Amino acid sequence: MPYRDFSLLGATAKLSGLAQRAYDLTRPTALSPARLQSMKASACGFDLLYATERLDEEALAALQQLADEAKLVEQFMVMKKGGVLNRIEGYASEERQVLHTACRDIFSEQPHMPEATAKAKKELEKLRIFLDDLASGKVVNRNKESFTTLVQVGIGGSDLGPRALSLALQAYALPGREARFIANVDPDDTAAVLAGLDLSRSLFVVVSKSGTTLETLTNEELVRAALARAGLEPKEHLLAVTGEGGPMDDASRYLASFYMFDYIGGRYSVTSMVGAVTLGFILGFEALVELLRGAWEMDVTGEKTDIRSNLPLLMAMIGIWNRNFLGYPTCAILPYSQALSRFPAHLQQCDMESNGKSVTRQGKAVTWKTGPIIWGEPGTNGQHAFYQLIHQGTEIIPVEFIGFRRNQRGLDIKVSQTSSQQKLVANMLAQSLALAQGKDDVNPVRRFAGNRPNLVLVAERLTPYQMGALLALYENRIAFQGFCWNINSFDQEGVQLGKVLATKLLHILADANTQIPPASEAKSVEEEMLRQAGML
Ligand code: G6Q
Question: Is residue 165 part of a domain?
Fold first, then answer.
């Protein structure tokens, strides 16, 4: 499919014009009941309320035109059907398919990529058997005790998503099961996690698609050494998730191994074995399947061409309106759910590593803005911290609120006639209105300019199904935006340079540790940098 540059799409000129007279949310009748009712889209248990965006019917129609002209849904279908979308024409690049959706196409009678879905099913079946063996007592420690803790050792895509989702669904953990995470090569990270563990009842799943990641391999050695010091046989406590045939694919070193595949990008790998092993351990297999079902149903929603019924596409287009036409450089994701406290961190990677690009899929410099800075923290905590800038600062920050009508754990109390959950959701909706409408005041310090765009995503309860749907909603939104900007959302060349330089610095430190004299008198900038930092 020929890709068209964002700036050449006819709707962009129209949208630029419309942005000059973007919908004014501060007019007294701007947020009419009719607007609130009509600017609402629903899918997979989520309601998306977007009346508080600076959009009117004309702008929405132009965004639909933009989505159609850029053939966003067609590109999404090409992705699902195994097109080699992870590439830059005419230049060396990863040249890969992008098939994380195949991991959840398991519910479909006719999967888009039967072979990839069959592989995903095979790994899931291996996991089901392993989880059954844990539950039935077939897999136990040397003292015939069950394993209570699973520690995931991985970094980046092999950490953030699984960590965010494990935390989000902790309320549904099987009795006596918990997950922990080790990511940083900072040895204090591993030490702090190990300090709180009964090693004899802990399993460690080392997750690395490449099997070569410095941090993960180093932390694996720290864990192996700790197990050996405790008189345990490391292999009996270690699992692996890695690429088939890769350097970590070695059955002699692990109790069990699961595979992930090169067509699944790290930051899109939560629904592969990268997330499934840990999530399956704490939640059980059935809940894991529910999570996959939620993601699958959101993937199906992503196939609709009408932006008003395609939630990921609608959110993508609203984001593009705010980023490219209203010119806002960041986007805050503010979940009113303590369980989602690490979800913004996952989205920060997923979005910024995907769409933080400045060349097109033809290798040309882009002349339009691409991915915004993504950040966020849970409400209501943030209200007592950084919301001041969102309300009255000189930068306008589009906000995405995420909330639930019911809590997960059922513990609540009524104080002053309202429950905590009602207080939580009321605060979220109040913030949405306050940002949009603003407030005039004779005192300039108490004046709120308003017109601060935001949307609200709300569902009944954060269940495994709902979590899967939320994950896929954002994954697909990110892919749609990348398609629209004509960038490759699936590579991450930007992280390579730092890695290469770190290797150079480590060689200098290794030589110093073994007292090998420097090759020449002239000091390299790397050596001088180490010296100035007091490392040499
Ligand atoms: C994600 C990135 C990156 C990757 C980590 C870990 O999309 O590629 O964050 O996940 O560098 O890689 P490994 O799984 O290969 O250890």
Answer: yes
Structural domain total, the chain: 2
Query: Which CATH number goes with the domain that contains 184?
Result: 3.40.50.10490
Percentage of the chain lying above the pLDDT 70 cut: 100
Specify the pLDDT at position 450.
98
Q: Is the residue at 98 inside a domain?
A: no
pLDDT tens profile 138-167: 999 999 999 999 999 999 999 999 999 999
Q: Would you name the residues annotated as active-site residues?
A: 353, 384, 499
- Which residue's CA lies nearest to atom 11 of ligand 1? 156
- Strand pairing partners for 203? 150
Instruction: Find the 275 Cα to ligand 1 centroid distance in Å.
Output: 13
pLDDT in tens, 161-193: 999 999 999 999 999 999 999 999 999 999 999
CA-CA-CA-CA dihedral for 517, 519, 524, 529, to nearest 10: -20
Domain hosting 200: range is 108-292
Q: Is 158 in the pocket of ligand 1 (CB under 6 A)?
A: yes
- The CA radius of gyration of the chain, in Å to the nearest whole number, is 25
Best of 267, 357, 491 for a ligand 1 pocket test (most atoms within 8 Å of beta carbon): 267
Last residue of a domain, one of 292, 307, 324: 292
pLDDT per residue as tens digits for the range 242-279: 999 999 999 999 999 999 999 999 999 999 999 999 99
Q: 19-30 burial, b for 16+ CB within 10 Å, e for fewer?
A: beebbebbeeeb
Q: Examine residue 200 and state whether it is found in any structural domain, yes or no.
A: yes
Band of pLDDT at residue 515, cut at 50, 70 and 90 = confident
The domain boundary, picked from 259, 292, 325, lies at 292
Strands (E), 392-450: 399-404, 414-415, 418-419
CB of 353 within 6 A of ligand 1: the answer is: yes
Does some domain include residue 13? Answer: no
CA distance 287 to 140: 22
Nearest to 315 by CA among 455, 435, 126: 455
Using the mean position of ligand 1's atoms as its centre, give its distance from the Cα of residue 55 in Å.
37
Q: What is the pTM of this model?
A: 0.97
* 437, 25 Cβ separation under 8 angstroms: yes
